[in-house]
Amino acid sequence: MDKIIKDELNFVQVTGSLDSFDFSHEYRGEKFYKGVIKSVRKSKEIDSIPFITSERNIVEKIEVGNNIKIKGSLRSYNIFNEDINKTQLQILIYVSWDIELIKDEKVEDTNEVYIMGYICKKPVLRNTPKNRVISDVMVAVNRKTFKCDYIPCIAWEKTAETLSKLKISDKVKIKGRVQSREYEKEINPGEKKTFKVIELSIFTINLLENKE
């Protein structure tokens, strides 16, 4: 494993095609840009993952359609959604390293996440309509700036069973991938709206000794 990953509490790297890229805002004289990277799974499903980056990370000209690699961390934000009249948790990648332009079109997309944090919501084990075992949980990941990000995580089958046995405040180390999915929700009688969710799909989860 790359040493840079070992040293991080929250590390994500994704390669894929740049689907959108626009100016977002300016903060203390520094410009920030928002974009979406599309990463293809081995199953051929496509994850559309939002990210934000400072202008200082754009060392080469990038355009929509380019293949790129981004490295950073998962960040969470609460945003008010007028459609459902309540606040929703939004997840994106905050790019911390230079964006790499990939010129080899034969390179397969990659998507990997490593986080270390604390269970802050009791995992729930359930079955899908197709009778697959699934469990989801919220993991709190501390930033070095004393802030905290809340990352929704999901696991399947045996990993889901392992996850469901954990307790609130357990310290865990997780390896997985960022995934996007859509779901429909009835916002008014007879009126449904499609919502998009970004979450961490767990590959492995390990319980760590909590010395704090």
Number of strands: 11
The residue-averaged pLDDT reads 90
Cα radius of gyration in angstroms: 18 Å
Biggest beta sheet summary: 11 strands, mixed
- Give me the strand/helix succession: HEEEEEEEEEHEE
How far from one another are the termini? 26 Å
Gross morphology: globular
What number of domains?
2
**Model regions low in confidence, pLDDT < 50 over at least 5 residues:** none
Query: Which fold does the CATH topology of the largest domain refer to?
Result: OB fold (Dihydrolipoamide Acetyltransferase, E2P)
> Please, how many helices?
2
**What percentage of residues falls in helices of 4 or more residues?**
under 10%
Q: How would you describe this structure to a colleague?
A:
Strands 1, 2, 3, 4, 5, 6, 7, 8, 9, 10 and 11 form an eleven-stranded mixed beta sheet that branches. The longest helix is centred in the C-terminal third of the chain and has 8 residues, at 157-164. The chain has helices spanning 3-6, 157-164; strands at 10-27, 30-40, 46-54, 67-81, 86-95, 100-102, 111-127, 133-142, 148-156, 171-188, 191-208. Strand 10 and strand 11 form a beta hairpin. The protein is globular. The chain is mainly beta. The protein contains two helices and eleven strands, in the order αβββββββββαββ. The protein folds into two domains: 8-111, OB fold (Dihydrolipoamide Acetyltransferase, E2P), CATH 2.40.50.140; 113-208, Nucleic acid-binding proteins (OB fold (Dihydrolipoamide Acetyltransferase, E2P)), CATH 2.40.50.140.
